[in-house]
Amino acid sequence: MADEPEYDMEFHRWGPNAMEMPPSPPATPPPEDEAIDFEREPSPFSEATSMTSVDSTDSVGYYREEAGRMFAALPDVPVVMPVDHAEIRRVSGQYELIKLVTGNNYFHEVDDLLRSPGGDTKRVLDIVSNSPWIDEMALEYPHVKFTGANFVPTRHPYRENVQFEVYNLVEGLHGKNGTYDIIHADATFKMTRDFKFWLKEMRRLLKPGGMLLLCDMEMAAWMADGSDPVLHIPTICKYTDCVDSQLRAQGIDLVSMPCVGGWLRELGGFDVVEDTVTSVPVGPWDTDELQQEIGAMARDNIMGALYSCHPLMARLGRSQAEIDELITEARRELYEKNLQLFERVFYVYARKSFIVVDEEEQEQASTTPPAPSISLPAPPSNNG
């Protein structure tokens, strides 16, 4: 198994590492008094793709209902988190939480790349564009062209330098080789059964020297003192174990989430791969004021995620009464027991090699075992 990332905080880990209608797409016209100094270019995606741009009149067919929540209707898309208003609000809150933890939307290398003068127009791809990340980045970098790819239409503010595309991402990320300077993916590990395939697609779409930015929060909570969380938050552990089992039944193994950086190293084609994990307090138990704010937001985010996962519980045969009882007890554990909990956030920053290597040759090189070594006899001595 690929190596896990380095840990940058002091918390110990216990164990062996273990309804609303969906939103419509934007229909807001551009402000008449806003000066726009460039025209929108054709999509960099291949003309042969099945990618679709939609308006609010034909978005209904992209959704289906299950257990009172809305999900993508595309075939073979895993049933994990809904795509309705309630979940989009939770994702937006999680985005604000991550930004508070990291201090910004990006690393300084990203700013250096996007502001570098000359050359072709900079392009950025945001995979599964549910959060406000693409909106804020497009506002900060108006000269950069952003593409958001998603399974369903989602609502975003109008930006002249942003376009959104809807297609079945499970089948692959559409686009020509070497299209993007930066690819960003937040909370996408559980959106596909084959994340390694997506990593290959991301490598293909990146330009030489392009950057890959990945971030994900695991769906679990741990005790800051290293003790077994089952002894303190049994209901939350039971709930998350049920979600894990349902995801495994769909071919998604969340235990592998910490291994993404190692997978990239094995895949090859990147000069730099940096992966870290940050422990985030759950609940306002830390003495630091900022950490208290982060902890309160993290606690609300976990509670919202438990609500969003109740269709998975229904798939396991749980009645609505049983689910409601679990939710009530989970809320008590989070909000009333005053426990020192934390959860983990995984980050990966990678930079594609500047030397272009054929992708098929690179993949073959990463999977072909090295040739056996040959022992040669020692050269004859000149002393004898």
Automatic annotation (TrEMBL):
<feature type="region of interest" description="Disordered">
    <location>
        <begin position="1"/>
        <end position="52"/>
    </location>
</feature>
<feature type="compositionally biased region" description="Pro residues">
    <location>
        <begin position="369"/>
        <end position="384"/>
    </location>
</feature>
<dbReference type="InterPro" id="IPR029063">
    <property type="entry name" value="SAM-dependent_MTases_sf"/>
</dbReference>
<feature type="region of interest" description="Disordered">
    <location>
        <begin position="360"/>
        <end position="384"/>
    </location>
</feature>
<protein>
    <recommendedName>
        <fullName>Methyltransferase type 11 domain-containing protein</fullName>
    </recommendedName>
</protein>
